Amino acid sequence: MAYAISEYADPERLNTVQTIKLLIAGGFGVGKTTMVGAVSEIAPLRTEERLSEIGTAVDDLTGVEGKSTTTVALDFGRITINPELVVYLFGTPGQDRFWFVWKELSVGAIGAVVLADTRRLPESFAAVDYFESRGIPFVVAANCFDGAEIYAEDEIRGALDLSAGIPVQLCDARNRESVKNVLVRLLQHIQATAAVR
Fold it and tell me: Which of 62, 142, 143, 169 is found 20 to 30 A from 155 (Cα to Cα)?
């Protein structure tokens, strides 16, 4: 249930609101912008620009030939869990040339979703490496594109060389309930990881 912004105008209430920052990351064209938009209770902030002729020399469109826009900074969405808990979602840009933004976006993040396209799994390696090297808990969500072959979660885990403790889940980034399930699994993983430390 979403709560009106006016409910947060009371300074005492503002002091009790806890926020959680989560990242939605992955390679170019895997569906990060779509995922943020599917679950956000507000109109998401998007920093998309049209792909240009000049960019074709830099951006590999193999497997995403129909893509016409790209995120150049971030996508932002919000989910209000209750009056005291708000989740902020930050979608990262996917192209190599914008990866410098990831460092800034990851400040304060308690976890991440690595969104993967099983037709182009190598696009996910950099995101997996990024979060593993920084000790940020993450889950892998395999976005089930129309017409793509569906793989078992263990097959995806093996292809990405993930440890047994990293959750892998199939999802549809266009579907609100599917995205919510991924985020719940991420929060459970974060909680389990914190309990072990």
Answer: 62
